[in-house]
């Protein structure tokens, strides 16, 4: 049973936050072995708080996006219990989860949940296997097949270059221009987007392998740009436009998302791209340094979340 408010008076045993993510470039192609540039989104997260007791296990959900989580949280917990061979009545205490991340928005919410619950069961002593592999196994329930990129950044909470089957390359010295994300107004379904790209590859391998290569080229360009101070906004815009052209080729830019992009460009954005699987969710936008984003945000009537270096610390 999911309770609406936590009323457990026992002392807090442990607590932690798991961040969401935003992807600079590399979406979809990362599943087939290309690199991806991914950053934690600290302002969007799940917070876990556990209160140890001898009472039957109870769960409370709160936060801005609690409604998303309440729909399926128990089915995910049941999956953990089955995978770890835990009987429900053996689980004790109270777990409170505060959801400040939107599901279906391209910010890695399913990975934050998988990582957060894997850490929970690990801290209770039930999970002794590799947290990355186990969390990815759970995330696959949402996506069908995931690359693991979202799990990697949620687990490490650090900017990184991700490549399947390879050690993570953590980014410690990097420079970003004025970048923001904003909600397109439409949800994207990751599994549907992944399946669509796979279907296109089967239909026309040579054409869509070339699209993967375009995305990979965008990643290589942006890897260079983040490592030096001299990259211009024009260079950044070109690399982001190249990545966005892949989403267009894949048919993952719905009309509502394109209208949002058009509004951003009209307001002064230099370039925009989908971030995440596409089909909706959040849009990444590049802005000139001289523009006052607070004024632009007010004129748009929509929040622009800054994802520059200060966001990623």
Your description of this structure?
- It is built from eleven helices and eleven strands.
- The protein is α+β, with helices and mostly antiparallel strands and 313 residues long.
- The protein has two domains: 2-170, Ribosomal Protein S5, domain 2, CATH 3.30.230; 178-312, GHMP kinase, C-terminal domain (Alpha-Beta Plaits, 2-Layer Sandwich), CATH 3.30.70.890.
- Strands 1, 2, 3, 4, 5, 6 and 7 form a seven-stranded mixed β-sheet that branches.
- A hairpin with a 6-residue loop joins strand 6 and strand 7 (169-170).
- It starts with a strand and ends with a helix.
List descriptors.
disordered C terminus; Alpha-Beta Plaits; 2 domains; Ribosomal Protein S5, domain 2; 313 residues; alpha+beta; disordered N terminus; four-stranded antiparallel beta sheet; single chain; globular
Present the secondary structure layout.
Elements: E1 2-3, E2 12-25, E3 36-56, E4 58-62, H1 66-70, H2 73-83, E5 92-99, H3 109-123, H4 131-143, H5 149-156, E6 160-162, E7 169-170, E8 178-183, H6 190-203, H7 205-226, H8 233-249, H9 255-267, E9 271-274, E10 282-287, H10 293-300, E11 305-306, H11 309-312
Parallel strand pairs: 1-4, 4-5
Antiparallel strand pairs: 2-3, 3-5, 3-6, 6-7, 8-10, 8-11, 9-10
Helix pairs in contact: 3-4, 3-5, 6-7, 7-8
What does the radius of gyration come to? 20 Å
Distance between the termini: 37 Å
Order of helices and strands: EEEEHHEHHHEEEHHHHEEHEH
Number of helices: 11
β-strand percent reads: 15-25%
Instruction: Return the structural class.
Output: alpha+beta
Helix content: 40-55%
CATH topology of the largest domain: Ribosomal Protein S5, domain 2
Q: What is the class of the largest domain in the CATH system?
A: Alpha Beta
Low-confidence stretches: 1-8, 309-313
| Overall pLDDT score | 92
Number of strands: 11
What does the overall shape look like? globular
């Amino acid at each position: 049973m999911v309770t609406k408010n936590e009323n457990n008076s026992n002392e807090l045993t442990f607590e932690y936050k798991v961040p969401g993510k935003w992807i600079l470039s590399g979406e979809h192609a990362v599943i087939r072995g290309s690199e991806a540039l991914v950053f934690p989104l600290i302002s969007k997260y799940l917070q876990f708080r556990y209160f140890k007791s001898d009472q039957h296990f109870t769960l409370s959900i709160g936060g801005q996006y609690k409604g998303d989580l309440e729909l399926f949280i128990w089915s995910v917990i049941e999956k953990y219990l089955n995978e770890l061979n835990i009987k429900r009545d053996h689980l004790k205490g109270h777990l409170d989860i505060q959801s400040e991340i939107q599901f279906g928005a391209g910010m890695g919410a399913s990975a934050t949940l998988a990582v957060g619950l894997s850490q929970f069961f690990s801290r209770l002593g039930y999970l002794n296997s590799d947290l990355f592999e186990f969390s990815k196994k759970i995330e696959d329930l949402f996506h069908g097949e995931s690359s693991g990129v979202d799990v990697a950044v949620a687990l490490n909470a650090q900017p990184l270059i991700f490549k399947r089957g390879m050690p993570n390359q953590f980014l410690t010295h990097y420079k970003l221009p004025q970048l923001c994300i904003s909600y397109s107004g439409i949800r994207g379904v990751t599994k549907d987007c992944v399946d669509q790209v796979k279907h296109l590859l089967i239909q026309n391998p040579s054409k869509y392998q070339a699209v993967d290569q375009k995305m990979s080229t965008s990643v290589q360009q942006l890897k260079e740009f983040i490592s030096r101070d001299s990259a211009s906004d024009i260079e950044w815009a070109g690399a982001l436009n190249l990545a966005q052209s892949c989403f267009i080729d894949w048919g993952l830019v719905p009309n509502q998302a394109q209208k949002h992009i058009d509004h951003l460009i009209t307001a002064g954005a230099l370039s925009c791209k989908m971030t995440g699987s596409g089909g909706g969710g959040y849009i990444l936008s590049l802005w000139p340094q001289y523009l006052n984003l607070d004024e632009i945000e007010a004129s748009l009537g929509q929040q622009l979340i800054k994802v520059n270096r200060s966001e990623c610390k």
